[in-house]
Write a structure and sequence with these properties.
Layout: H1 9-17, H2 23-41, E1 44-47, H3 49-65, E2 75-79, H4 106-114, E3 117-122, H5 156-164, E4 169-174, H6 180-186, E5 189-192, E6 212-217, H7 220-230, E7 260-264, H8 274-290, E8 294-299, H9 304-322, H10 341-352, H11 355-368, H12 373-395, E9 400-404, H13 420-424, H14 431-436, E10 440-448, E11 451-458, H15 464-478
Helix pairs in contact: 2-3, 7-15, 9-11, 9-12
Length: 491
C-alpha cells in the first residue's frame, strides 16, 4: 500500500469505497512521498501533516457510515492564497509570513464539507504575480520532471505537488494563466473556470476582475470532481453566479463527433518552440481524424496581439489598489524602526514585498495616476471589450477554440528572472481567455525533448461542461493521463 500516492483521486475514491485501504493509509502514503521528494521539489510552503491525518480519520468515519462523497479522504494541495482558518496563509509573501486567518475561504469550506484532506499550503509566486514560482519569499519550486527547471506559475506548487504525487489533486488560482501554464509545464490537467463560477471569498486578491480559483489533477475526471465540489453560488461574493451549476461529471462520457473547433491564426506566431508546434499539430489531427471534430485553422482573433498589454495594465492597476491594505498597521509584517508612521509604512512595504510585486504595484499606480488614467487604464478596458466581442463572434461559429497553452516547455530556473518581458510572454496564449473571463483548460498532449506539452481548450461563458467533455475525449485518445513524475533531472 506504500504507493497509494500514485492513484488519481477517483481511483482512490473507488479503493476507499471498496475498503481496499483506509483514508489514513492513503494520507500516510502521500505524506511519506512528501518527505521523500519535498526537499527537491519544494511544492509546499506549509505541510499540515497533523491536520491531514485528523481529516483522514474523519473521512474514514464517513466511509464507515456510507456518507462519503467522491472527495472524502482524498489528499489535496491548497494554494497558499486560499484562506484556511487556523493554518498559516502567506500568499508567498514575507508581508503575510505569520498570518493565521480566523476564517475559511468558500472553496476550503466546500472541500471540508466534502471530506477532502489538506496535505498543505502550496508554494506560489508572491501574491500570484509570476509565471515560474520563482517569485516566492519562501524560495522557488522545481519541476518534478527535471528539478533544474521551473514548474510554471503562479500555481507552480499546486501543479508540482500533483505531478510529483505529493497530492492527488490541488486547488490553484488563475489570473492570466496561473493554473493552465504550470499544468502544461508539469504534465497535469488544469482548469480556469468562467469568471464568477467559483467564489473568490477568502482568496487573497491580486486582480479582482480576473482572479478565479480552479482545480488541478492528473486527469480530466479528477478536475471535474473538484469543480463539482467548489463551483456554485456564494452570497459573500458579489461576482458569484447565482444560477444553479450542472453536474460536470455527467459531461465526461459524451462523444465530441461533429464538434466545431476554431484554431486562431494569431496564436501560431514566432517564438513557439518547434516541438510544441508539432504536438499541437498532432492534437488537431487527433481531434479531426480520430474524434470526428470539424477543425478550422483560419479563425482570426485580431485583437489577440493586444491582450498582453491590456492584461499588464489592468492586473497591476487592480493589484495596486488591492495591496494598499498591507501597511504594517492592521496585520502582517510590520517594520516599526522608523521615526514616523509614514516611515514605518514605507519600510514595511520595502521589506515585505518582493521585487516583482513592487514592479507591478508601480506599473499599476502609474496607469491609474492623474493624466495617465484615460490613456492607459480606460483604453485597456475598451480593448478588453473588443477582445471579448471577437471571442463572442467566434463562438457563434465554433463550439470551442483550441490553442497551445504555452509557447515553450519548462525553462531553466533563473533563465528569465532578469527579463520581465520574456517572462510575461509565457502567458501570451492564456491571457486572452482570462481578459475575456472565459473558461479554459490545459490538457497534456505529449512531450517535447522529454518534457510535457499542454494544449488549451477555450469555451464560451459557463461552458465548462463542454470543455470537460472535449478534454476527456481528447485525453482518452492521446493516452497521456495520470503520469507521475519520478522526480529528478540535472538540478
Amino acid at each position: 500500500m506504500s504507493d497509494l500516492w500514485r492513484l488519481t483521486g477517483h481511483e482512490a475514491h473507488e479503493g476507499l469505497r471498496r475498503r481496499e485501504f483506509t483514508a489514513v493509509e492513503l494520507t500516510e502514503s502521500v505524506l511519506t512521498r512528501v518527505l521523500e521528494v519535498e526537499p527537491q521539489v519544494h511544492a509546499y510552503i506549509t505541510v499540515t501533516a497533523d491536520v491531514a491525518l485528523e481529516q483522514a480519520r474523519e473521512a474514514d468515519a464517513k466511509y464507515a457510515s456510507g456518507t462519503a462523497t467522491p472527495l472524502a479522504g482524498i489528499p489535496v494541495a491548497v494554494k497558499d492564497l486560499i484562506v484556511t482558518k487556523g493554518v498559516r496563509t502567506t500568499a508567498g509573501s514575507r508581508i503575510l509570513e505569520n498570518f493565521v486567518p480566523p476564517y475559511d475561504s468558500h472553496v476550503y469550506e466546500q472541500l471540508r464539507r466534502a471530506g477532502a484532506v489538506m496535505v498543505g499550503k502550496a508554494n506560489m509566486d508572491e501574491f500570484a504575480m509570476g509565471s515560474s514560482t520563482e517569485h516566492s519569499a519562501f524560495g522557488p519550486t522545481s519541476n518534478p520532471w527535471d528539478i533544474s527547471l521551473v514548474p510554471g506559475g503562479s500555481s507552480g506548487g499546486s501543479a508540482a505537488a500533483v505531478a510529483a504525487g505529493e497530492a492527488l489533486v490541488a486547488l490553484g488560482s488563475d489570473t492570466g494563466g496561473s493554473i493552465r501554464q504550470p499544468a502544461a509545464f508539469c504534465g497535469v490537467v488544469g482548469l480556469d473556470p468562467t469568471y464568477g463560477r467559483v467564489s473568490r471569498f477568502g482568496i487573497v486578491a491580486f486582480g479582482s476582475s480576473l482572479d478565479q480559483v480552479g482545480p488541478i489533477g492528473r486527469d480530466v475526471e479528477d478536475v471535474a470532481v473538484m469543480l463539482d465540489c467548489i463551483a456554485g453560488h456564494d452570497p459573500r461574493d458579489a461576482t458569484s453566479n447565482p444560477e444553479p451549476k450542472p453536474d460536470f461529471r455527467n459531461y465526461l462520457a459524451r462523444g465530441i463527433e461533429g464538434m466545431r473547433i476554431g484554431v486562431p491564426k494569431e496564436y501560431f506566431v514566432e517564438g513557439m518552440e518547434p516541438g510544441v508546434r508539432a504536438r499541437i499539430d498532432e492534437s488537431l489531427r487527433i481531434l479531426e481524424q480520430d474524434l470526428g471534430c470539424t477543425v478550422d485553422r483560419e479563425l482570426s482573433l485580431p485583437s489577440t496581439e493586444h491582450a498582453l498589454a491590456v492584461y499588464y495594465i489592468i492586473a497591476p492597476s487592480e493589484a495596486s489598489a488591492n495591496l494598499a491594505r498591507y501597511d504594517g498597521v492592521k496585520y502582517g509584517f510590520s517594520d516599526r524602526t522608523g521615526n514616523s508612521m509614514w516611515q514605518n509604512m514605507e519600510d514595511t512595504r520595502q521589506g515585505g514585498f518582493g521585487v516583482e510585486v513592487k514592479r507591478r504595484i508601480m506599473l499599476g499606480t502609474y496607469a491609474l495616476s492623474a493624466g495617465y488614467y484615460d490613456a492607459y487604464y480606460v483604453k485597456a478596458q475598451k480593448v478588453r471589450t473588443l477582445i471579448n466581442r471577437e471571442f463572442q463572434a467566434a463562438f457563434e461559429r465554433y463550439d470551442l477554440i483550441v490553442t497551445p497553452t504555452a509557447p515553450t516547455v519548462a525553462f531553466p530556473i533563473g533563465a528569465k528572472l532578469d527579463d520581465p518581458y520574456a517572462m510575461y510572454l509565457n502567458d501570451i496564449y492564456t491571457i486572452p481567455a482570462s481578459v475575456a473571463g472565459l473558461p479554459a483548460i490545459s490538457v497534456p498532449c505529449g512531450e517535447s525533448e522529454g518534457l510535457p506539452v499542454g494544449v488549451q481548450f477555450i469555451g464560451n461563458f459557463w461552458q465548462e461542461g463542454k470543455l470537460l467533455q472535449a478534454a476527456y475525449a481528447f485525453e482518452t485518445a492521446v493516452g497521456w493521463a495520470n503520469r507521475v513524475a519520478e522526480v529528478g533531472g540535472s538540478g
